[in-house]
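Session log. Operator J.P. requested a structure for one protein chain; no other inputs attached. Running the standard single-chain path with token output.
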Amino acid sequence: MRAHGHSDGWSLVLPAVLAIAWLAFPARAPGQDGAPPDKATGEESEKSEAAGQAVSVEDVQRMRAQIRTLERQLEEIRERLEAEELEKLRQAADTTAASADDESESLMDRTYITASRSLQALNPEISVAGDFLAQLVVDEDFEAFYAGPHDRSGLPLRALDLHFQSTLDPFSFTKIAVGFDPAEGVGIEELYITWTGIVPQMSFTVGRFRQLFGVLNRWHEHDLDQTGYPLASQLLLGDEGLQQTGLSVKWLMPSLWAHTNELTLEVCDGENETLFSGEHFSVPTAMLHLKSYWDLSENTYLELGLSGMFGFNNRRGFEDEDREGAIVDEPWRKTFVGGADITLHWQPLQQARYRSLTWRSEGFWVSKEDLESAEYDHGWGVYSYLQYQLDAVWFVGLRGDLVEPLGSDRLHWLVVPYATFWQSEFVYIRMEFQHGEPFADCHDTRLLLQVNWAAGPHKHEKY
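Structure written below.
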């Protein structure tokens, strides 16, 4: 339709243009084209010249009138063509809108027999992790002195972990971690809800979670770079680490001194028996953690962290056997915990899948008021490890631990070389050797084989 409209317009324009050209350049009178005029008498010549001049003036006036008429006709044609094009565009827009309305009405008129797919989308994402840890204890004196029924040579299944994760709405999500330990039974490791986006640059968490003290305390055991937590974490923070119930507020701070700064405040019950009272309804503990991050280059980043924690370790409302089961409260006793961590990670951009190097270190300091002496016992510990990626699946590393536990003046140490084979993101196999004096006055030398596998959307996550 559009091409046809243009052809109608040009059928009128073309004759008009030819007419204007003919009128603007009329045929020349004899003698005007350069040919010699015919010979004539002088009188006849004068008459003919006067008559030619009279005719020329009339022709010019007539041509000007015709030109003005043609210009008006051209303007009318141009306006008519523009009006036709505009009307065609309006008709096309009305047709598109009508088809869209018809489609929406047809969608509304549909009858849905079942909503099984929608209900399935509401189910939480489930991941399962199995952890098999075989070990061979070499030192006989250690096995006779320290090893209990669950700490000796054997081929045990260490744990089975179930992880549930679900986005509840645009502002909140939940995570649940349930552990099945053959020795200790079933336990809820984490169960919390987190709100994001309500306050800019802030998130809020309520429930039971692994606290953000340092780096490794937040990770689950099957996500560690070695088979277990460092010796400093076990002896100073407890076997399970800082895993308590309360609330957490995280603030993504402005980039003041680093590329990224993050401040976390956590207030929890003092459930940790090593540091605090080990009770759910004790006086809450307070923890503050500051993390700063720098991009040193396109291949390297640096992360520094500072942690501080305060709480009380006295028990409240317990039965005192010396007082014939009377319910009493112990005197107030305070606990202070400090920590610092550093992580340096290198991973070349062009070989990110095949090469990487990680150096991570943490230091802990604990001061706990003693019940009997009313004085403070002090303890400290450090660990450091270096891990290098050989190719797409092989990683090797070395970790060193040094600890002076609470109420002791003897240093405990451990050296841990290891190699990890990542068969895929779902399966890894780790060989590890441990040697040192981790407990009391005995040496510990053991060889460990860890096989870990995970099924589900989240697999192995360091969170």
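Operator note: Helices lie at 2-24, 42-108, 116-121, 140-145, 231-237.
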